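REQUEST FORM: STRUCTURE PREDICTION
Request ID: SP-0412
Submitted by: Lab K.M.
Chain count: 1
Length (residues): 429
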Amino acid sequence: MSAGTKRNARWDVSGGDIPRHLFPTGRIRISFADRDAKRAAKRRALCEELRADQEWEILHGMVSGRISIAEVERRIAEGGRGAYREIVRDLERHRMGATPTLADEIADYCAWYKRTRKIRSYENVKSRLKRLREQVRTKDGRTVELGSLPIDQIRIEDLENALLAISDHLTTQENVRVAASGMLSWSIERESERAGQEQREPRWYRNPAKLVASREKKVRVVVLSEEEVIRLLRHAEPYQVAYLRAFLHLGLRHGELCHTRLGEDLDLRRWLWEIQDHPKDDRCTCSPCRTNGWSPKNANAYRKLHVPSEPRALRESIERYLSLYPAEYGDYVFRNPRTGAPWVEKSLQEDFKALCDRAGVAYGRDVREGAVLHSLRHTCATQLLRAGVEITYAADLLGDTIETIKKTYVHLDAHDLGTAVRKGPSYDL
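STATUS: Completed
RESULT:
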């Protein structure tokens, strides 16, 4: 250094109080980047104050260049010691990198969901979150996709507007809201776990989806009357009678019926019907079967049913159907007679619609009092309770929880409640 050249002032201290995990040598050196004596004195005093307050993260940030001493000086001058926490949080964000976007977290969540959940459930969640991610909001005078925003910048208002833009149907809106809430809860928990391991504050911790008003799902209260069931059975072909009675007497879901294999699931010798996992099978055209294999909807859906001899029509309809449409061991039992392929939901719904049209039964979700194939499961559950079957048995038969059976599948009317009163005590004098 030539004569007359003045070195920048710096703070150079060592001591036993300095944490070695941040400063391995036990020494801190910070250049003030200023030759002004008064300014250097103020910055030296600032460093001494940070040391006295044990704000080692801020000192380490200045040493590593993540924040300048001028910036620290400015923020503490404006906010006093109250600025410490905000500075430390910003330093941790800088160290961790940018906060992930909503799209990033959705991708990670869907990857986790695919590993840990059923393929059908995964596809539903992925579809709902994709629609949410693609919605837009106006930010700083420009339109941006929600997916491009950092996850800690998603607002309640954003989610409210997104739900309204996605669909007018309350059930769809609620399904998307629940999917978003589940994803955000997972994201918050994962970030909290990482923060604990790294001894830092979590970078995000709010779940705005939980604060969005829930949309009440519209449960379809369509239970077929006895007269409508009789009309359907009278107008049905033998193959239709077989699947109608399977739905009406056993309360099966459409996927459980479509994926029934002779011998492996339906044992006609013992008349046992088992709902269980299926391996990948290219004979079926549904997405799960062509990827990882089909599985029942949830844990309760795994069950083994006995097909009773009474009512006789249940067994007889299946036997008659198989005599007309024979199947070998391992074949799918219920098949489209026009193609010979296993039924899938869409083709089975279309077949049921054609039957409803012939029988004069209203069909369709958007039709007043219109039935759909799933209405047969609702009819089964309601008729079981009307017949006096305990709800625990009904839940086990249908492969669902008691709470779901009560809230979703059983639709008792005023006549049913009147019957309950008549069966109660009379208190006659």
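NOTES: Residues 170-197 form the longest helix (28 residues).
Reviewed by: T.R.
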